[in-house]
Automatic annotation (TrEMBL):
Pfam families: LytR_cpsA_psr. This is LytR family transcriptional attenuator. The keyword Aminoacyl-tRNA synthetase does not apply. InterPro entries: LytR/CpsA/Psr_CW_biosynth (IPR050922), LytR_CpsA_psr (IPR004474). Keywords: Membrane, Transmembrane, Transmembrane helix. The keyword Signal does not apply. It comes from the Bacteria. The lineage of its organism: Bacteria, Bacillati, Bacillota, Clostridia, Peptostreptococcales. The chain crosses the membrane at residues 12-35, 47-66, 75-96. Residues 144-291 form the Cell envelope-related transcriptional attenuator domain. Belongs to the LytR/CpsA/Psr (LCP) family.
Length: 383
């Protein structure tokens, strides 16, 4: 008799918990599906997550759905299930943003995809070409390529080499029957011309590219809480809307400051060469902070949301997932080194500016290029 009373004592509450149990079922299935679809966790974490979801479901669902359980147990299970659904919603938001991010930045046409010389990004060495366009806003807007950097990655030795090329380097423009032009002008003709010109100049493959612009730097640096860079000089920027002063030594920079630091060249005796070095300092600081476990966990959602509209790449979603899995699984301590290619200042007729006037260019130095290529190949081979 007492058992019957216990089962029917709170019929409304029993109905509520049964309805909630179905919502809990949907939430559990939903988060498991999102984990499978996003596919960014290493296998041991992925399967561990499935197991945890399954165990929690098996413990909580029966008490919520069936009437035979005591009121006290139903209340405890209801509270725990609500907390879990909150956790699922939080995790689901991360996973949704991840899928959305991959979809946006890898949305390229067939021609751009064919530019890739694909490798196993977790086993083989490869070169990524960073093309930084000198505008803010839409990443598809065509403009000059002011940042030209080769990022050589060896995932086995955990070494990264940053190689900067002067923006005014004299190159051969593939789309204009290899007419002479400045490297920065290739950005106006498309990423295929930029990659083709650099591959022709150095004789090495650019396996992938990442196209960014001013907005990428602003959003990315702010999303990770700023960066610390060591300046070689005390200097004040010029020719920009906002004026910034940087001190020799360590400086903590927000997005706007980092962009100004990377753009300035008139304050230095060697102009564009020092600007390239400062761009490398910004890149190194960003890579170091983004690859740390604390930043990945605490800022992951902010990073994806901040840069998804201002970055484009011909990495596939699967390749990016593999890189994330490797970083989460191994948490490798990447060693980053830098080098700069140099040349001789001169004036030349360029294809983009026509035959009416000569413009300032940097004539490539053969010895500098040879040394740069040798170092790239050494990193690739693991030496």
């Amino acid at each position: 008799m007492s058992k019957t009373k216990n089962k029917t004592k709170h019929p409304v509450f029993a109905v509520i918990t049964r309805i909630w149990s179905l919502l809990f079922l949907a939430a559990s299935g939903g988060i498991a599906y999102l984990m499978y679809y996003a596919d960014i966790l290493p296998a041991k974490y992925q399967y561990g997550g499935y197991a945890a979801i399954g165990v929690c479901f098996l413990i909580l669902f029966p008490a919520l759905f069936f009437k035979r359980f005591k009121m006290s147990r139903k209340v405890i299970c209801l509270v725990l299930s609500i907390a879990l659904v909150g956790c699922y919603a939080y995790g689901g938001n991360y996973l949704y943003k991840t899928v959305k991010f991959f979809s946006k930045i890898t949305k390229i046409n067939t021609a751009d995809s064919s530019l890739a010389k694909r490798v196993s990004v977790t086993d083989d060495s490869y070169n990524i070409y960073i093309s930084g366009i000198d505008i803010t806003g839409n990443i598809d807007t065509v403009s000059r390529s002011d940042v030209n950097m080769i990022v050589t990655v060896n995932p086995k030795t955990h070494k990264i080499l940053l190689t900067s090329i002067p923006r005014d380097y004299l190159i051969k423009l593939p789309s204009a029957n290899y007419a002479s032009d400045k490297l920065t002008h290739t950005g106006a003709y498309g990423i295929d011309d930029t990659l083709g010109a650099v591959e022709d100049l150095l004789g090495i493959d650019m396996n992938y590219y990442v196209k960014v612009n001013y907005s990428t730097v602003l959003k990315l640096v702010d999303s990770i809480g700023g960066i610390d860079v060591n300046s070689d000089y005390t200097f004040t920027t010029s020719g920009m809307k906002s004026i910034y002063t940087f001190n020799k030594g360590m400086n903590h920079l927000n997005g706007k400051q980092a962009l100004a630091f990377a753009r300035e060249r008139h304050s230095f005796p060697d102009g564009d060469i020092q600007r390239n070095k400062n761009q490398q300092k910004v890149m190194q600081a960003v890579l170091k902070k983004v690859s740390s476990s604390k930043t990945l966990i605490m800022k992951y959602s902010d990073i994806l949301g901040g840069i998804q509209d201002y970055m484009k790449t011909n990495f596939t979603g699967t390749e990016i997932r593999d890189l994330i899995k490797m970083q989460v699984r191994d948490m490798p301590n990447w060693k980053i080194t830098k080098q700069n290619m140099v040349g001789t200042d001169s004036t030349e007729f360029c294809y983009s500016t026509g035959a009416d006037q000569e413009v300032s260019v940097v004539v490539p130095d053969a010895t500098s290029m040879e040394k740069a290529v040798t170092k790239i190949k050494q990193v690739e081979s693991g030496k």
